[in-house]
Structures are given as C-alpha cells and as structure tokens.
Design goal:
The complex is a heterodimer of chains A (about 250) and B (about 325).
Chain A (H helix, E strand, L loop, with lengths): L2 E9 L16 E6 L3 E6 L5 H8 L7 E6 L2 E2 L11 H5 L2 E5 L10 H6 L14 H13 L15 H14 L4 E5 L7 H18 L2 E5 L3 H7 L2 E6 L2 E6 L15
Parallel strand pairs in A: 3-8, 3-9, 6-7, 7-8
Antiparallel strand pairs in A: 1-2, 1-4, 4-5, 9-10
Helix pairs in contact in A: 4-5
Chain B lengths: L1 H30 L15 H35 L11 H13 L10 H22 L3 H24 L3 H11 L11 H16 L2 H7 L3 H6 L4 H23 L5 H13 L4 H20 L6 H20 L5
Helix pairs in contact in B: 1-2, 1-12, 2-7, 2-10, 2-11, 2-12, 3-4, 3-5, 3-6, 3-10, 4-5, 4-10, 7-10, 8-10, 11-12, 11-13, 12-13
The chains are: A alpha/beta (about 250), B mainly alpha (about 325).
Chain lengths: ~250, ~325
C-alpha cells in the first residue's frame, strides 16, 4: 500500500509562528496508507483535533514535516508544496459541529464539495452533478436533498457533511468525531461505509472518535494520544499492547 | 431530480418576471410622470426631447445602476460577514461620503469641477482605504465589521460638529442630499457611474467561488482550496466601489442594500451566488424603478414606504426568514 500521508518528527501545537511556541505532544512520526482506516483516540483536549487540523494545513506544526502524496503540505519557500486548490483535491477535514448552514439546501451543501474543481464562476459540469448524485445516494440522502440543512437533525446533518467530503473526491479523509451525533445503527453503518470508501476508492481515512468498540472492530489501526505521547498499533493488537488501558482508568 | 427541475423552473420564471417588471417600470419612468411623453414627441430640440434626454434617461440610469450596485454590494457583504443585517453602509462608506459632502457644503471646502460628487467620492474612497487597510491586517471578519461601524460613528460625530457651525441654507442643501435622489445624475456623468458599477460588478463576479464557499465560514472555504484573503479583499473592494459610486451620485440610499438580498432569496430559494447575484441585481432594479414613480417624495422615504410592505409581505407569505 502506498503512503498518502507521512509525518516526520511532528510536534503539534497552536501559535507555531511564535518563537516560544510549545508543543502539546512529544515529536512523533506517522504514516497513513491508501486503503486503511485509522482510528484516533484520546481524552478530550489531548490534541486529536489539533492533529487533524495540522494534517489538512489549517494549522502549522511547531516542528516537523508532513508530506501529502509525495509533496510537502505547506507552502512558504518550498517550491514543491501543493497549492491550496490542489491540496483541497487530496485532503479534507470533516467536522460535525461549528458549521452554520443558513439558507442552504442539502444538495447545495453537498455540491460545495466540487468547489476545488470548479472554474472561475463556480459552475458545475454534468460530471460534477453526477458525482454529487453519487455522494447523495451513498449517504442515503435522496429523500431530503431539497430540505434546508439547518432543519435536519444532528445525525442527518452529519451524513450531509460526510457526503460533501465524498463529493470532494479526496485521497485522504480526516473526520473529527463523525459519530458524535449518530445513533448506534447509523454509527455502525458509518464505520462500515468508511471501510468501504477506503477499500474501494483507495482512500486513507483518519477518524477521531470516542467509540473504542467501533475503532477495534472496523478500523485497521488505532492511534492514541495520551499524556503528550502518540502511539499507534494494529487494531487487533492495540488492547493487548496497552493502548486502551486509559479507557478503563 | 424532480426537485432540481422544479428549482430550475422557479429560477427561469423568477428571472422572466423580474425582467418583465423592469421593462414595464423603465417604460413608465421614461414616458409617464408630470409631463407625459411618447416616442413621437422626441424630435430634435423639442422641450419633450430635452425632458427625455436630460431628466428621464439620467433618472432611469440612476435608478438602474443604484438598484444593481446597492443590492449586489449588500448581498456580498451579508455573505462576507455572515450577517443578515450587513449592508453597503456597515463599513462606514456612506458616512465617509457624508463627511466629504459636509466638508463641501457646510465647511466650504472645494472638491474641484464635480463639486458634491467629488466630495462624496473622496470621502467614500478614503473610508474604503481605511477598511481595506484593516482587512489586510485582521483575518477575523467580525473585527472588520466592528471597525466599520466605529469609523461610521466617528465620522457621523465629525459631521455633527460641522452641522453645528453651519448656516441655515447650507444645512438645507446638506439635509436634502442626505434624503437621496435619482434626479441628481446628469446625462454626461452616466458613463462614469456605469463604469464604476461595471468595475465593482466585475470584482464581485470574479469572487463568486469565494462567496459561495464563504457562506460556511473562512476555515471551510480554505478547506475547499479557496484563496480567502484574496476573495475577501476583492469583495470588500468591489462592494466599497459600488456603495461609494451609488452614494456619490444618488446620496445615501438606505434599505435597498439590506432588504433586497433577502427578497431575492425568498423569491429564488437559493443562496448560490451564481443565481442570487443577478437575482438581487434585478430585484434592486425593480425596487428602485418602482421608487422612481414617486419622484416628488424623498427617495429614502419612498423606498422604505414602498419596500418595507413588499418585503414584509414576501416574508409573511414565504413562511418567515430562515432560522
């Protein structure tokens, strides 16, 4: 399996531009391969969201390097770095809260996923419309494509957010607690869908969650951020190797 | 797919209705009024011809250009600030124009050949420069909104000081300017106004990608590969240019910039700027042309008197503004 994301000596933290910026975790390395789903676990405030934001270039790390599909994630002086638009075709972060979709129908929102591929005036081709239809159908949203996003339940809205990311056709999908608002059957379906997306489309998926059971059952590897240290093991061996001890403390 | 077809039908029907209304109101603006005109009256050098070319055509141009500029600027700023109460005047641009005019009319400063027009333009553009400088330094749109409002209040205070020291006649002229009018534009100046509006529209038209993505916030737009900083500057510059041109040529015209984008949304039920931008422009044209039919009443009064019931009716009938 090819490496989609590669982190070397990464130190996560906010305010990376400041000289005295301190990292919130010890330096670590990590790679995300095509076709695998990795669960990201840890207590609230341990740095899961910070890690995800760093991987999609919303935050700059305090130290270290992230390579996305063979090229550097950040611009600056590095000539081989992805442009923002190229990057948006490769990686996206799906967040389930904090978005206010005022005055937007489900279809309009899912169609935003085609923005990186759109021309100057943000038009959508027939191919774009087809991809949006596929994403809508994959997340079973056909019955409410014309409803307003802000009128949906939290669970329905989570599926809409995921459909938008699917329509974006990225190689690396980052999800921040996607099943936080989902019921048990929907959560199970979501993780099965993530497995399917990874296997069928060759995507690399990193999903932060508090659902240890789903992480063990449906993910290939489990990554844990605990007390400023990052560890990553195969999902089958994570419990035996003590990665999940903190959940029972 | 049935929903998609219904949406397309709604868009086509909406545009057809607005274009038809705009043509009817344009005809009324040109040919009806205190002196009724017809095509046959427009022979060379007749009084009717002079009324047509010197009064009616400039008034029509002023109403059309103001309708477009205020509505599109209002829509763009509401999206940029993600605030339904934002309008062309939240950035203090109207106040800047008012200060320029107050300096010209109340304090006796000379602003060259175009007089009040230049004064309003200089004032509006000076505030635009302040806003752009702030926008370049701060990422947060809320900071910009607050700075725009503060600049507006500060300038209004300066204008109040000028008003206190002015004579009655200057004050009368200034108050009259503040009421707004489509009757000030002259035939010779139409091209300047049209050029400013075209430039502003070009900047906003090229920002449609940013505007559509910015509906969900700047971080979301960045995640879609949109250059947020460039988009924001283009929208601010375009909207400022439109608001400044409108204020310079027609005075501070309220209501259109805030209300028309909501009206357009309720008619078309979409927030896609590819549809909403031309829809807002057409709604703005129709509303301003409707206001033109009452040329004896101050423009701001008639716009509110005509516009508020219409918008309220649409809101009530449409089931209310979205949550």
């Amino acid at each position: 399996m090819t490496n989609l994301l590669q982190c070397e000596g990464l130190v996560l933290g906010y305010q990376a531009a400041k000289a005295n910026a301190a990292g919130i975790v010890a330096p670590f390395s990590f790679e995300l391969k095509a076709g695998e789903v990795v669960a990201l676990l840890g207590e609230n405030g341990c740095g899961k969201s910070t890690f995800l934001k760093t991987l999609c270039a919303q935050l700059q790390p305090v130290a270290g390097e992230v390579t996305l599909c063979g090229q550097s994630l950040w611009g600056s002086a590095d000539a081989t770095a992805w442009t923002a638009r190229e990057r948006a075709k490769l990686v996206t972060l799906v967040r389930m809260s904090g978005l206010v979709c005022d005055r937007m129908t489900v279809r309009e929102f899912v169609s935003l996923g085609r923005t990186p591929y759109a021309g100057l005036f943000d038009g959508r081709s027939k191919e774009d419309e087809k991809i949006v239809d596929e994403a809508v159908s994959l997340l079973e949203l056909e019955n409410f494509t014309n409803r307003w996003v802000n009128e949906l339940s939290d669970g329905e809205r989570s599926r809409v957010y995921l459909a938008q990311a699917v329509a974006q056709q990225v190689k690396v999908l980052l999800l921040d607690e996607p099943n936080a608002f989902l019921d048990i059957p929907r959560s199970r379906k979501l993780f099965m869908l993530l497995q399917k997306l990874a296997k069928e489309r060759g995507m690399g998926i990193l999903v932060s969650t508090h659902s240890v059971e789903y992480a063990e059952k449906y993910c290939d590897r489990i990554m844990v951020i605990e007390k400023g240290c990052v560890r990553c093991e195969s999902a089958n061996e994570a419990r035996a190797k003590g990665l999940l001890d903190w959940t029972e403390a | 797919m049935a929903g998609e077809r219904r949406f397309e039908y709604r868009v086509q029907a909406g545009f057809a209705l607005l274009v038809a209304l705009a043509f009817v109101l344009s005809y009324l603006t040109l040919f009806s009024g205190s002196v009724g005109l017809s095509w046959s009256d427009l022979s060379l050098n007749s009084v009717e011809s002079r009324i047509f070319w010197d009064i009616r055509v400039p008034r029509l141009a002023a109403a059309v250009l103001s309708g477009i500029s205020l509505a599109v600027a209002g829509l763009s700023l509401q999206t940029l600030f993600r605030n339904p109460l934002a309008g062309p005047f939240v950035l203090g641009i109207s106040s800047g124009a008012s200060l320029g005019v107050a300096l010209s009319l109340l304090a006796g400063f000379s602003f060259g050949y175009f007089g009040v027009l230049s004064a309003a333009s200089v004032g509006a553009l000076a505030v635009t420069l302040v806003v752009m400088t702030v926008a370049a330094r701060f990422e947060n749109s809320t900071v910009l909104l607050i700075v725009g409002l503060l600049v507006g209040y500060f300038i209004d205070a300066l204008v109040s000081l000028l008003i206190v020291g002015s004579d009655a006649e200057s004050l009368r002229v200034y108050v009259s300017w503040g009421m707004g009018s489509f009757g000030r534009l002259t035939f010779d100046c139409i091209w300047i106004y049209a050029l400013s509006v075209l430039l502003g529209l070009a900047l906003l038209g090229l920002s449609v990608r940013y505007l559509n993505a910015a509906r969900m916030g700047d971080d979301f737009a960045k995640g879609l590969g949109v250059n947020v900083r460039r988009g924001r500057m283009m929208v601010l510059l375009g909207a400022s240019l439109l608001a400044a041109a409108s204020t310079a040529f027609c005075g501070p015209v309220a209501f259109v910039g805030i209300a028309v984008p909501h009206l357009a949304f309720m008619l078309f039920k979409t927030s896609n700027h590819r549809v909403l931008m031309p829809a807002s422009a057409l709604c703005g044209i129709v509303l301003c042309l409707a206001a033109c039919q009452f040329s004896k009443i101050p423009l701001n009064a008639v716009l509110s008197l005509v516009g508020v019931p219409v918008v309220l009716w649409v809101i009530v009938r449409g089931g209310g503004i979205r949550k």
